[in-house]
Amino acid sequence: MLMDDAVEPVDQAQMTALVPREPTSAALSQAAAAADRAASSALFAEYRQQLAARTRTAHDQDLARCALYLADVGVSVGALAVEPAAWAGFTWGLVEGFKRWMLREGFALATLNRTLATIKSYTRLAAQAGALAAEQATLIAAVKGYGRKQGRNLDAERAKIRRSTKKAQAVRLSLAHARALKEQPTATPQGRRDALLMCLLLDHGLRVGELAALTVGSMDLDAGTLTFYREKVDLTQIHLLSAATLRTALAYLRHDRAGAATEEALLLGSRRSGALHGTLGVRSIQARVQALGVDVGLTHLSPHDLRHYWASAVIAGGTDLLALQEAGGWASLAMPRRYVERAKIANERVKLQT
Fold this sequence. Notes:
The chain has 15 helices and five strands. By secondary structure, the protein is mainly α. The protein has two domains: about 130 residues, no CATH class; about 160 residues, hpI Integrase, Chain A, CATH 1.10.443.10. A hairpin with a 4-residue loop joins strand 1 and strand 2. Helix 4 runs antiparallel to helix 5, helix 5 packs antiparallel against helix 6 and helix 9 crosses helix 13. The N and C termini lie far apart (about 125 Å). One of its GO terms (molecular function) is DNA binding. Keywords: DNA recombination, DNA-binding. It comes from Candidatus Chloroploca asiatica. One of its GO terms (biological process) is DNA recombination. This is Tyr recombinase domain-containing protein.
């Protein structure tokens, strides 16, 4: 009788290793926690990827405005646009305080309402990611903006205050004044900040609210451009930076904002010592412009005066009114015409074909 070939005995331990086993509860918990962390970190990124570029820019400026408020009340936060954990300490009371802060700073009610909507969207995502307590997200969602009737009443009251302090006419600047205002000392953080502030107002005609809302990501130094949102006309614009603005932006960003996240506020406040600290909101900008104006012999100078100067300067340089209207973010030609100083010789800008 022939014998079968010898067969090696099977190792029982090897066989056991090949049989699928039910995961232990500890392993399952660890895997679930890792999956939750990955999903949480991707939640904000996926949400932002679905937004139009224009909406993303508006969100960044809304969140930068919120970070300014928090810094103003002594709270430091992470990157609100990308980090769920940055929302961990948010409460409905903070959001209510932010709403009142925006009113005091003079932001348009449309901007206030849009910013509240942005905050609610991100706090809802943060709650979904587990970074914010669900009950706080619910309370924040209940914070109300202002309806049309409320808005009219509030704007009427704010208009009374503005009219009581409004100047009869804009402060007139000469070219020498403008150059002096832009030539701030660049050896100090405050000087570099002031130089950029003045260049943005004098060379680009930004409104004070637009300036306060700029983020670090608004500046593209490689392309030499500034991307910003004009809330008054609901328009995102791109400006080519003037040579002076690009030079001052390079100095300020490299020395004073190196490592800052793109969604962080561009312009920081400053202490009396000149060190940069805290926020540079609308009222802070107005106060700083007035102080720098006194330094060059101009009293009661305002950011709006600098926008007047910009409009007149670009027309004097040969820019036509249609181009000025587009660059300045006006809805019609009527507004830029009001900003431009009348020429001493009525027809000096008239070109005849010869």
